[in-house]
Specification:
This protein is 43% helix and 21% strand. With 446 residues, the chain is α/β, with parallel strands linked by helices. The protein has a five-stranded mixed β-barrel with strand order 1-2-3-5-4. Helix 5 packs parallel to helix 10. The N terminus and C terminus are likely disordered.
Length: 446
Amino acid sequence: MTGSAEQSSGPAALPATSQETSPDTPWPLSHFSGKLKAHIEKVTPTWVEGQLVEFSMRNGNAWMTLRDLEQEISFNAVAWRNVASGLDGVVQPGARVVAQVKPNLYAKTGRLSLVTHQMRPVGLGDLLARVEQLKRQLGAEGLFDPARKKPLPVLPRRIGLITGRDSDAKKDILRNTRARWAAAEFEIREVATQGTAAPVDVSVALAELDARDDVDVIVIARGGGALEEVVLPFSDERLIRAVSEASTPVVSAIGHEADRPLLDEVADVRASTPTGSARLLVVDEAVEREQITQARSRMSSGVERMIGREVEWLAALRSRPVLAAPETMVAGRAEEIAGLRRRALVSMESATARAQDWIGQARARVTALSPQSTLDRGYAVVQDGEGIVRDAAALSPGDDVRVMVASGEFDAEVRTIRERRGGPDDQDRTIQDPQDDQTTQDEEPR
């Protein structure tokens, strides 16, 4: 019983995992340190890149500090005797290095350090090889395609300038640009143009200027310098992508002819030097004034030549006979009209004569066919009370008739009617007034 009681009053078992811990069942700090150390030791050795900012040898071991190339992050590193002997004199503080490290936690102090298994400086050739590889990658994505490049404005309202603080490149661009165009205006951003912070600073300044509506073109400028100071910062992938996405035309004015940074490839226009960018940004005011003067002279000469040609054309037009002596045209037309008039009169007289002849002939025919003409030839027209007598049989002896002759008329009494037969063998029949027959009979004996 006693032994059982003592066993039950001993320390309680620790939680197996961190999730099982609580305020009532915590882990001792040493236990936590051991657990954390065991977890960290499971991480496999990893290759990392950074800047070696501290390096010292003590007791054959190398004590170092590695800092990130872009952000304020650093780790303590140690290389034990077998590795440190190969680093002394090979790497120097400030160098860019790659190292194979494995994290290690010193349980007593909780200090995390990187145990270095291998380390070597990153040579310039390696860096340029990385730049070349990145160039092929971005080129395959189309970031350097000429079709993506935007034209520069003829005369920008405001020029965005990204350059180093109080740098000679800034002074050259301002001086040469304003010498060409005195009214040029700038929006300047002074940033780091070398070192690990340069790509980030330049990208931020680029975004600020690209967001402004009054900035028509952006220049990223830096003067000459060492290859790693010029090519590497301006070949950073983040900066290259930021330039490719900018809506404002970008001019690269990095003064390094031997090895071109990738900024030259992605920019819309490349200037060989900051000074040379001035010739791309604005026109030369003196040259433009001279060209305007020449253009005005050419236009004036052109107008004068045109007026001269028109004057000559008018003179030639006025010298033509129709304008030199216009009365000739009127006289010719007058003669033509007179001739036409004469022909019209002759034609009208001929037509009138022919009409008169036709009328005379028609009158003669009508006269020849008229009753008067018949009377003139000795015929007479006999009428009774009912009209013209055409048949003698229609009369009776003793009838009164009117006889019309060529000149005048007279009344007569029918005494004898002689009817004419139709055939040649027919004999005419004569009807006489009885009184005439008695008279005749009376007279015959006598």
